Amino acid sequence: MTPEDWLANFESKIADVQAKAAEFQENLETAGATESSKDGSIRVTVAPNGALSDLRLADSARSGPALAQEILKLARKAQRAAAVHVAEAFAPLGADSEAMRMVTGYIPPEEPEGEPDAPAPTYRFIDETEPPPAPPRPTQQPQPRPRRHRRSDDEDDDFGDNSYLRRD
Questions:
Q1: Arithmetic mean of pLDDT over the chain
Q2: Which residues contact 69 (CB under 8 A, 6 or more apart)?
Q3: What residue numbers bound the domain in which 39 lies?
Q4: Which of 22, 92, 103, 158 has the smallest number of CB atoms closer than 10 Å to its CB?
């Protein structure tokens, strides 16, 4: 292979990588997702990183805990869809790449359809005047530290006693 051939091959590879990177960037910028309730009264939009970027509530939207539950459910669905879109954005870089395996490893599970909503999380306030609960006891005893080897006077000393780290 001549140097000119090698250079042409190298430039071709660079152009291919640049094209794939541009396609990846374009796909990633549009990888957000929007989910709506069945009646259309609630719409949730998330960015490619899963952050909530828009929330629309119609006047007909429910109120109270049912509204909160529906918003959270739609946000989880939109986050999963955004994660799938981000994974699809990696396609130009290679479907069997380490980056693709890393991204697809973080896709959340799909929301079950038609099942009743999970109960809202409950919170308990702790009275700060109460002592905190005792930490769990360790199940293993700590291992003793290994003994240090002490140098005997008859061991060979390659560097002498002149340490440059010692203060005089």
A1: 76
A2: 117, 118, 120
A3: 3-105
A4: 158
